[in-house]
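Lay summary. Proteins are chains of building blocks that fold into shapes, and those shapes determine what they do. In this project we predict the shape from the chain. Here is one chain we studied, written as its sequence of building blocks.
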Amino acid sequence: MSDELRTSGRRTARGRGVLGALSGLLAGYTALAVAELVSAAVRPEAGPVVAVGGAAIDRTPASLKTWAIRSFGANDKLVLQLGILGVLALFALALGLLAARHRRVGSAGVLLFGAVGALAATGRPDSVGARDALPSVVGALVGAALLYRLAGRLRPAPPAAGPGGPGSPGWDRRGFLVAATTAAAASTGAGLLGRALHGVDAERAVKARDRVTLPPPSSPASPVPRGAAPRVPGISPFTTPNADFYRVDTALVVPKVVPSSWSLRIHGRGVTRALRLSYDDLLRMPLIERDITLTCVSNEVGGPYAGNARWIGVPLAGLLTRCGVEPPSRGGPADQLVARSVDGMTLGTPVEDVLDGRDALLALGMNGEPLPFAHGFPARMVVPGLYGYVSACKWIEDIELTTFDAYDAYWVKRGWAQRAPVKTQSRIDTPRPFARPEPGTVMIAGVAWAQHRGIDAVEVRVDDGPWRRADLAAEDTRDTWRQWSLPWKATSGRHTLTVRATDRTGAAQTKERTRTVPDGASGWHSVLVTVR
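And here is the predicted shape, written in a compact code that computers can read:
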């Protein structure tokens, strides 16, 4: 009889352990759901997953960020959030197992989860203060209370005496199931309500954007030359559709700003007249329209993070001149323009570049419509010839004039260069890597860019053969990329196709391969194909 009792006891202990782990998982789920609901009353960015994810991004080495962008592309943020949820799930399972044996200690561990979320939320650059900690704190308190209660239901009840003597210890199965089921249903309801409330705020911003009508520009862009976009299958379109335009930023939640509540402040060193401008103020100003190619500094050689769009906005130089700003070459005390976005991101741009006559914009529209939310609505910066991390601040709300010696912007603090003009680059779009074309004439084609300098020539080499000049499409402006093509009489076998470009200054694209850090990748792009 004693052996049977021991066997029964071991089974009971294993069962309690499994249910303890599930209790921890349910407590973690409840904490996140409650935090989601509370964040609807604070702001979406204060939610624990978003806050911890943002803190992780801030502390991730530049090389690892580049790897994530290269490996996961636009899904890098989703992968990060799934990773955070996975870690939280393991943590919750462990706390549940602990709580099954040590009820108070395991339940108190949930509070540690809340503390991490609260510290991450209040430590973000865009934090609005202590109230950003509320979602994590309230969620953790509710999760800890639930785990404490569920663990209590798993505790052995005193043995019941019967005619045959003392009975075996048991636990409150019915009470546990009722509590767990009720908590799961209530948590799901809280999470769904929180998502719905977030959706209400987002819908307000969407409707506000839909009501925006961009005025016609006082200086429209010239029509794209007829020969600027050759009809070569597989080549990138000359104008990148908004839905296909690359997105690289640190925002786990895309800011959805209602333009009526937004304003832009311009202030700092050398500013004789500080300005605060509303969205309507900008719409009433003379607007210009320009075709400009943007490139991300995280773009590897041959990578996809370049795109060309038709932007409409207010000349940035005009705004700075209105504030009395002078470039350093004319005695101005500020050599850096620090742009701040609504999510706390900071980018530093050379004042001299903004005021040297190029079409630097405070952009309001993209390809004939107000900026998409993912690309900076209601306003962003666009500066031709500079990588995005030093020029293309999205969701901008503040411009401060300062110096490079006085302030390091976000990416500079993480090992990237203060100044980063776009490097001359070229890319083979077709044939794709490892393609298997038929023998005969194969069109090799792609794009090349050297914004604000322009592309003068593109050359292609097959294997170790001579360099051959490609046919250049018509140039739109020196601030846009340029398409190119070359017919190749392909013969059977494996071949390596390589491309290089020369910009308008006569500088040829370097063969030397460098990483993206600190100021952009360099090297020739090659693809390997097998002709059947």
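What the prediction tells us: The chain has ten helices and 20 strands.
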